[in-house]
Amino acid sequence: MDPSNFRKFLRGADPVAIARGLLGAEIVTQIDGTETGGRITETEAYWAPDDRASHAYGHRRTPRTEPFYADAGTSYVYLCYGIHELFNVITGPRETPHAVLIRAVEPTRGLPAMLARRHMEILRPKLSAGPGVVTKALGISRAHNALDLLDPTGEVCLLPPNERVPEAEIAATPRIGIDGAGPDWAARPWRFYRRGTRFVSRLNAFS
Question: Is 105 helix (H, G, I), strand (E, B) or coil?
Fold first, then answer.
């Protein structure tokens, strides 16, 4: 994908299509002088204001959810269960609260730093397979909320995929951990991962 068209792509009206299209994109962090990065292998789409699983359901607008209403390509980082910081990419036209949760990445840069952050000695999928460990491995925290991810000088930068992942290589399943949103929303197949990669949070969750 041409980087000059990336913002336009993220501004699209369909977060499900964008969640598929973000497979293969790269997240690069420059934190405290250390560069790390990972190629996205798993995503989930959130389609507010209708989506009961979204923090912006019903156009909820609070200091916490304000990034949802910013331009596409803004970061949304929040604390889950008081433990894990989760990283999302805001999509859709401005004032339209769509988002894509990044659930897993495959390391591309700065592997020693990523291992150190996760207190690991050798590369295993658990390094960065799961939304709570993606942020730990890449050094992302709530300090990186509401950033423009397309700013090449920023601490967290989102780079477009070098090429689109073929549809045959994309698996779609229901999203994970949202049963409280009700059976209709919980059943929608809006979680995507790239087949053949080890870096997937729950490979057989719905097989």
Answer: strand
